[in-house]
Structures are given as structure tokens and as C-alpha cells.
Amino acid sequence: MLIKYKKSYEKIAMGLLSFMPTEKDIKKLQQTMKSYENEENMHLFLWKDEDIIGLIGVKSSDGQHLTIQHISVNPSFRHQGVGKRMIQAIKELYPDKELKPNEYTAPFMDHCDWEHREGIE
């Protein structure tokens, strides 16, 4: 189940974000969290089964598109379709938006046989 990020989830969100190659540095990670907390066009969601096991972050760049900025799954739960379910949940949450990856999320999206490959931001 997709849940909206709130401050009480900060530590788990930072832990999941730290699996992203661009978020290894603590200062960069803190800056990214502040962006999700403060910028109106950036939205962070967590994936919860029994525990929180995944994270997906999106950025609205215009009225038509959502860019998948971050997608991360706890290593113990990888290869079980969690990432695909998070993407599907975002599609359902924003049915009027077209999803596109950034350069860091594109390889995962390709791995998922994502159908909208034309635009990478």
C-alpha cells in the first residue's frame, strides 16, 4: 500500500533513499529529504506491506508529466514486484499524468518493461 511521506517516517525514508547511487553522501541525502518536505512539486511516498519496505519519489515538472526521481526497495524484498506495484500505484494516484524516468530511474523502469520510454528527464 502506498502511503504519503510524513516527518515521522524520516529515518526509514532516508535509509531507503540511501540505496540510490546519487544519495550515498549524507549531506546530499539530507538535501533531498528537505526538497521532498518543502517543494510543492515534489512528492515522496512509502510502500507498506507489514513494514515499510519501499519508497518512490516523484516530481511534477508541468501539468502533464511526473518524473520518477527515486525508487528504492529494501534489499530483502527485491525481485518480488514491489517496485512495479509502487509504479502502478503512482499511475493510479495520478491517472491524468504521464510517468517518465530520470536518468537514474530509467534502468529500473526499462527492467520493468515500462511502456513509456520516449522521455527521460
TrEMBL record:
Gene3D superfamilies: 3.40.630.30. CDD domains: NAT_SF. One of its GO terms (molecular function) is acyltransferase activity, transferring groups other than amino-acyl groups. It comes from the Bacteria. The keyword Transcription does not apply. Keywords: Acyltransferase, Transferase. It holds the Pfam family Acetyltransf_1. PROSITE patterns: GNAT. This is N-acetyltransferase. It comes from Peribacillus glennii.
